Here is the input.
Amino acid sequence: MRAEDIITTDEDAAEDRTPTGVQLMTRKVQRDAIQQELNDLRSALCHTLGKYHSEPGPQGITIISVLSDQEIFSEIRRLRLIAESIEQQSPQP
Here is the structure.
């Protein structure tokens, strides 16, 4: 490919610089940041709960599968029931 074969237009770039375009891009960046934060939280919860599965992936990358939100809440509920059961069985001073 030669540089002469590349066609560029300024129309798309100009649309992104309008106030609406800037707002939309800002919202997209914020949404992506929130989504990444939620994904990090899910991963941390699954790691803390010991409920994740890692396996070798392509090109030496490790793939970690985490639980869904519902599965995380179910696991927390299960652990709370165990803790409450142990508390009830413990002798009270």
User: Anything to note?
Assistant: The radius of gyration is 24 Å. Residues 19-49 form the longest helix (31 residues). The mean pLDDT is 83. The CA atoms of residues 57 and 63 lie 6 Å apart.
